[in-house]
Amino acid sequence: MVEISETSRSESVALAALRSVAALALREMGTRYGRRPGGYVWALLQPLGVIVVLAFAFSLLARSPALGTSFLLFKATGLLVVQVVTTLSHTVGQSMLYSRALLFYPGVSWVDAVIARFLLNTLVVWVVTALILAGIIVHDGLAPVLDWGRIALAMGLATALGFGLGCLNCFLFQRFPVWQNIWGMITTPLFLISGVIFLYEDMPLMAQEVLWFNPVLHVTGLMRDGFYPGYAPGYVSVGFVAVCALVPMVLGLMLMRQYHRDLLHR
Predict the structure, then answer these.
(1) CA 3 to CA 229: how far, in whole Å?
(2) What is the distance between the alpha carbons of residues 254 and 246, in angstroms, rounded to a whole number?
(3) Other CB atoms within 10 Å distance of the CB of residue 108
């Protein structure tokens, strides 16, 4: 009887947590996307606009991109991966700030807020990425030979990296509010040093030695490896990216577990 009651209790706790996550996700769907003109359309148009501008600008400077024949696809395979990292690191980092009023209810925890924001925004950026890339392929009449395993690995690592950084930001954004401004300054020019515009192999040797330690650069190289069969980025290290995702995630979760009550009442 004791084992049955403990099992029932754990199931009820899990069900309550699932309801909390679903409610928080639905709330964000209504407030963040539902109340703005365009809603989800802007989530699609914003990265697409940047890709078009970059592709047009570089088409005036060169006859062909560094890989393939489509400037749009070349820029998109880099920029969209960077967007996954920056979007998740920012939105997950604001989880407690965004749901602060609801976290005073006993049935809602900070973990629910983090999971809800992560799942919803991951779904949004993945769908946006798929739609833009598919649209470019159709628009330019391309027939790429895709390595789905490499593409999935690149997207998975970008998602893990964004989540890991977001977990640490979740603590830092509340403990040091100025960090939000600093993080914005860091991530705004990230596409310039992450292989979106230039391939890692085309950079000067000194730049390669420094930028190798940018984990996003490895993810963009892996993503392009999945779209361009003739491209083999030897500099990519999956283990390095995994460590860069795991360390801030573990540190952020530990800090949040220890100090979430203090942060909630600041």
Answers:
(1) 55
(2) 12
(3) 21
Q: Which tokens belong to 17?
A: 């947590």
**Among 48, 77, 94, 84, CA closest to 187:** 84
Report angle CA 131, 63, 233 to the nearest 5 degrees. Answer: 60
Highest mean pLDDT among 11-15, 115-119, 148-152, 188-192: 148-152
Q: Which residues contact 163 (CB under 8 A, 6 or more apart)?
A: 88, 92, 118, 122, 245, 249
Give the integer Cα–Cα distance in Å for 256 and 231.
41
User: Taking the C-alpha atoms of 12, 264, 92 and 174 in order, what is their torsion angle to the nearest 10 degrees?
Assistant: -160
Q: What is the pTM of this model?
A: 0.89
CA distance 100 to 97: 5
Name the residue with higher pLDDT: 147 or 18: 147
Which tens digits make up the pLDDT trace of 26-59? 777 766 665 555 566 777 777 888 888 878 787 7
Torsion of CA 139, 143, 149, 150, to 10 degrees: -70
Contacts of 262 (CB under 8 A, 6+ apart): none
Instruction: Report d(CA 91, CA 120) in Å as an integer.
Output: 10
